[in-house]
Amino acid sequence: MISERYIVSLIKLLDDEDSFVAKTAYEKLMCLDPSHAQLISKYRENANPRLKILLDEVIDSLRYKGYIDAVVDYFKNDGEDFERGAFLVAKFAYPDVNFKSYSEILDLMAVDLRKRLYTKEDVLDVIDAVNKFFFFEKGFRGNFENYYEPDNSYINRVIDRKIGIPITLSLVYILVGRRINLPVYGIGMPGHFIVKYESNGFEIFIDPFNGGRLMSRLECERLLSQLGYVPKDDYFRRATAREVVKRMFGNLVLAYRNNGYVEKANKLIEIIKLVESFDENLHAHR
Question: I need a labelling partner for 3 at 20 to 30 A (CA). Which of 33, 72, 216, 239 fits?
Fold first, then answer.
């Protein structure tokens, strides 16, 4: 087990006058376990400006390695958990995001929503009450003004700011709805993610990005045609958690590229390739 004293000695050697010694210390720090990033962060606070830059590089590298490990673990073990998947994506930019505290916020929203549905029996009345709760009372809305802002893709920031893109707004809608057993599911139409309410042979589509607009299957097909896609049944099946997470990563690639953060976009592309190769290997061994 690597001791704190050993890590501190490597940090001090980073500032050594001998470039070979400093380089060796840097390489050894880069090879540490991701769990040591927090300890290095503690010693970064009192470091000189040059050392802070080097330590930032080490911390970022270790955290990225740890993040890759978490992504692999999710797709290997928790790949059907929508909520954990959404917060896994959030950890790319917010490594210290508190999953438990946000989960509790969603719990409280579900408690509030349930109260509004006690007297509702008709399906359309239920959906109307749900939509009023989300889009009027809570104020969730689509970010039309800055669609490619990265924070639109991070569920913690969507909950904080009440704005997002179709997939993250749909996720909040679904995660709260499922807590009170509403039959709501994600539909990964190309170009526009939506929600389907489906129960006892009845189905209707809900567009959280546009204030909960209700759509029939035919209206969804018209929207697909407007977006340049030929409608087909596969576009209307329930999205899996794995598909949702991969799509969120893909949205972030576009968002970061659009805002000039090429390095972050490239890291996300690496993650998507890793996930795709992992899925291929998983299917090959079934």
Answer: 72
Its pTM stands at 0.89
Whether residues 22 and 156 share a domain: the answer is: no
The last residue of one of the domains, among 41, 62, 77, is: 77
Residues 88, 68 within the same domain? no
Residues 6+ apart with CB under 8 A from 126: 117, 120, 182
Residue whose tokens read 């880069």: 30
Q: How far apart are the first and last CA of the chain?
A: 37
DSSP code of 238?
A: B
Are 166 and 213 a contacting pair, CB within 8 Å? no
| 47, 103: one domain | no
Domain total for the chain? 2
One pLDDT digit (tens) per residue for the chain, 286 residues: 788 999 999 998 998 889 999 999 999 999 999 999 989 988 888 888 889 999 999 999 999 999 999 999 998 886 689 999 999 999 999 998 999 999 999 999 999 999 999 888 899 999 999 999 999 999 999 999 999 999 999 999 999 999 999 999 999 999 999 999 999 999 999 999 999 999 988 999 999 999 999 999 999 999 999 999 999 999 999 999 999 999 999 999 999 999 999 999 999 999 999 988 866 654 443 3
Tell me the residue range of the domain where 210 lies.
Answer: 82-284
Judgement on whether residues 160 and 247 belong to the same structural domain of the protein: yes
Look at residues 77, 97, 130 and tell me which one is the last residue of a structural domain: 77
Task: Verify that 86 and 50 share a domain, yes or no.
Answer: no
